[in-house]
Backbone:
């Protein structure tokens, strides 16, 4: 919960930092930084998950305003958000990469409704429904039709935070395993003296450290202003997959205690699962990386062609 | 150069990580009540208030 409350504050407001054209929105940004306002990023729809070109929520021009109609789902902070940064279609049809634009929409806007649902690791999440929500032109973020680029730039920056959260979960799981294996005795000796379990601890430690270094590298590249697409994808993929694996091993080390509802490792096991899905699935990260690898290799290795 | 800068800043990042971990661990008991875990809205509000009071949000909002 802590990591989501922390990260979402940036994820939901960064489109304003990138694309605000109105002083009122800069005040909103200051309030977010102070924690006085809670944002939410509204991208995903039933027909638009990994492929945001499928966005069907429409923003129709009406004089100086836009009128939003459609529905978003899997939106973190539903029920607590003070405003949403929304990706909507101002031109074209679902499937077109162009024609998408981002908007700032207060949660109190007339015609905006929400519906919460539950996921396996509880946090505020649900659907946002737009039924003729009127948005003034000054609340447009970035340029008309440049919403996809804005959304992707936002995700590229905050994907690193998912990797960092995954590292935190894994670090805690490893600490829980070390404590339990050192304390728990079976067959007359501590579990930590069994070679198989010691190998586990070593591998958990090594994989966690690798994830931390990849995350460090990705954050450093973003801070330096370099194109960090590959570094970020590598860190997100490796750290989230590692966290799931580390937490699974920790559950195994705890035996029956590990699957008891409410135990720390049981909670960690559930908490880590969604990390491999949101802000770009592991499969999307692999596609990004494969593209990078293929583009950065000018010629195939000698001897591979007939 | 970028790698060196990253590692040069590591001591600060480590201090930040320790602060975040302390904050998280101090919150854990508050997430549990005698009748079970806090609801997601109440848990969010608690986490948000602690992060706000600790000044963490300025780290993620430019």
Residues:
């Amino acid at each position: 919960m802590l990591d989501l409350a922390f990260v979402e504050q940036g994820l939901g407001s960064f489109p304003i930092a990138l694309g605000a054209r109105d002083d009122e929105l800069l005040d909103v940004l200051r309030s977010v930084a102070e924690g006085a306002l809670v944002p939410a990023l509204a991208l995903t729809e039933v027909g638009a998950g990994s492929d945001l070109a499928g966005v069907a929520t429409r923003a129709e021009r009406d004089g100086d305003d836009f009128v939003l109609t459609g529905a978003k789902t899997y939106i973190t902070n539903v029920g607590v958000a003070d405003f949403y940064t929304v990706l909507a279609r101002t031109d074209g049809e679902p499937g077109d990469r162009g024609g998408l634009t981002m908007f700032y929409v207060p949660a109190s806007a007339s015609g905006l409704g929400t519906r919460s649902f539950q996921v396996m690791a509880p946090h505020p999440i649900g659907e946002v429904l737009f039924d003729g929500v009127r948005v003034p032109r000054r609340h447009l973020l970035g340029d008309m039709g440049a919403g996809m680029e804005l959304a992707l730039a936002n995700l590229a920056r905050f994907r690193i935070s998912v990797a960092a959260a995954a590292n935190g979960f894994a670090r805690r799981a490893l600490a829980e395993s070390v404590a339990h294996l050192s304390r728990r005795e079976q067959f007359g000796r501590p579990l930590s003296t069994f070679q198989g379990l010691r190998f586990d601890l070593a591998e958990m430690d090594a994989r966690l450290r690798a994830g931390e270094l990849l995350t460090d590298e990705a954050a450093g590249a973003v801070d330096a202003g370099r194109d960090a697409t590959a570094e970020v994808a590598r860190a997100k993929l490796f750290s989230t997959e590692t966290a799931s694996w580390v937490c699974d091993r920790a559950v195994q080390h705890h035996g029956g205690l590990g699957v008891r509802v409410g135990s720390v490792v049981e909670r960690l096991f559930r908490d880590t699962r969604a990390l491999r899905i949101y802000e770009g699935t592991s499969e999307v990260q692999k596609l990004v990386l494969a593209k990078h690898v293929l583009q950065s290799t000018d010629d195939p290795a000698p001897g591979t062609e007939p | 150069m970028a790698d060196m800068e990253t590692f040069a800043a590591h001591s600060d990042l480590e201090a930040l990580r320790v602060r975040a971990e302390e904050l998280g661990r101090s919150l854990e008991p508050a997430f549990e009540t005698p009748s079970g875990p806090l609801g997601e809205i109440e848990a969010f509000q608690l986490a948000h208030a602690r992060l706000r009071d600790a000044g963490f949000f300025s780290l993620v909002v430019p």
Q: What stands out?
A: Chain B has three helices and two strands. Chain B touches chain A through 33 residues (CB under 8 Å). Chain B has a mean pLDDT of 79. Helices of chain B lie at 2-8, 10-31, 40-53.
